[in-house]
Amino acid sequence: MTTKTRARRRPGAEPQPLRQPRLDVWLLEPCRRTGCGKEAHAGRTPDGWTRITVGGSGEPPRIYCSGLCATKGIALAEIRTAPKGGTR
């Protein structure tokens, strides 16, 4: 038989808020690598770079230097496909 235990707080102690990771640094700063986030033209994507196309987006295909930058690019393209005013 397994017994469940709960973490105990001191009486009157305030619960501590969860710490959020600092994403604002990479979300707000543009990448410093030349060509990252630029429109992809016909031809080969540079080795190690990622070419992203989001269906239904008015954004053209773009190239990114890393997975982190590509993730940000995908998110921005998806936001730009959302209908204005949100959904109901």
Provide keyphrases for this structure:
2 helices; 2 strands; alpha+beta; 88 residues; two-stranded antiparallel ribbon
Biggest sheet, in brief?
2 strands, antiparallel
Give the radius of gyration.
Answer: 21 Å
Biggest sheet strand line-up:
1-2
How many angstroms does the end-to-end distance come to? Answer: 49 Å
Strand content: 5-15%
The poorly predicted ranges are none
Average pLDDT figure: 77
Form type: elongated
Class by alpha and beta content: alpha+beta
> How large is the count of helical segments?
2
- Roughly what percent helix? 10-25%
Order of helices and strands: HEEH
Number of strands: 2
Task: Describe this structure as you would to a colleague.
With 88 residues, this protein is α+β, with helices and mostly antiparallel strands. The chain has a domain at 42-83. 23% of the residues lie in helices and 7% in strands. It is built from two helices and two strands, in the order αββα. It has helices at residues 24-28, 67-81, and strands at 50-52, 62-64. It has a two-stranded antiparallel ribbon. It is elongated, with a radius of gyration of 21 Å.
